[in-house]
Amino acid sequence: MNAFSQAVSDGLTLTQRNILKNLRNPDIVVFSSAAPIAFALLFGFVFGSAIDIGTNYREFMIVGILTQTMLLTAANTGVGIAHDMKQGLVDRFRSLPIAQSAVLVGRTNGDAVNNVMVIVLMSLTGLLMGWRIRSSVADAALAYLLLFLFAYAVSWITAAIGLTAKSPEVLGNAMLLVLVPFTFISNSFVPSEGLPTVLRVIAAWNPVSALVEACRQLFGNIPPGRAAPEVWPLQNPILATLLWVALILAIFIPLAVHRYKKTVSQ
To answer: How far, in Å, CA of 154 to CA of 59, rounded?
Structure first.
């Protein structure tokens, strides 16, 4: 078996291991969904009553909640890797005759399956709050695929960070400080046209904004009468999202694997 085939086989084996571990710990899904559900209720029934965007605000903001949920669950990959390193699990993997990249592949793939369960739960929460998918099945499936791919890409960013973290607890708090602003300085919860000039420019080129815009179009949740976007990522949000995903994966998969090899060689 050549090196590539060995890496694929090892990656699939560790993916199965992580999926089974997650299935035996349903608390992971519950606690991954708790904060997003709280955000959804807070924005939908508290802040939403004071926000007038000319349409049903709860339907408008649910896509932002879905996006924020995917970012927060992607952070679990980095925290999980940092925890494994602290507990010595990575050292045990190092003693096995497996491809070094397989540990990261197994973790990110296993967490991706967990993300699917979380997004299903959040979608049901949105439906109960009044959100509706007003497009075709194919369009809705593409929207969910974009959410899934973006979360998978971000999980590689957090994996690279998790390999250098000294404490999984500190890393978890740091992830919140970094990821949460990405959703607030965007079009996730309010139209970005109303933001101050500097924040409006940041929001327009924020990859989260492209993802949210793409999903709103695909779910059929664009507010009626809204002016057409003026910047390229929001004019072509599906393509922009796919380009962001490809760019993130191209940068952070090699970076994470390099950091893992450097860590286990110490």
So the answer is: 25
What is the identity of the amino acid at 31? F
C-alpha to C-alpha distance for 236 and 157, rounded to whole angstroms: 24
Can you say whether residue 130 is alpha, beta or left, with left for phi > 0 and alpha for psi between -120 and 50 degrees?
Answer: left
Q: CB under 8 Å to 151, separation ≥6 — which residues?
A: 70, 71, 73, 74, 112, 115
DSSP 8-state symbol, 220: T
Give the dihedral sign, CA 232/202/154/228: negative
CB 145: neighbour CB atoms within 10 A?
12
Distance CA 53, CA 41 (A): 18
pTM to 2 decimal places: 0.88
Dig out the tokens for 165 from the structure: 């973290």
In the chain, domain spans: 3-264
Instruction: Say how far apart CA 226 and CA 234 lie, in whole Å.
Output: 13
One pLDDT digit (tens) per residue for the chain, 266 residues? 555 666 667 667 777 777 677 666 666 666 666 777 887 888 777 776 667 776 778 888 899 999 988 888 888 888 878 777 777 666 666 666 666 677 788 888 888 888 888 888 889 999 998 899 999 999 999 999 999 999 999 999 988 888 887 677 677 777 777 777 888 899 988 888 878 889 999 999 999 999 999 999 999 988 877 777 889 999 999 999 999 999 999 999 999 988 888 776 66
Residue closest to 114 by CA, chosen among 249, 34, 22: 22
User: Which value, to the nearest 10 degrees, does the dihedral of the CA atoms of residues 45, 49, 52, 56 take?
Assistant: 40
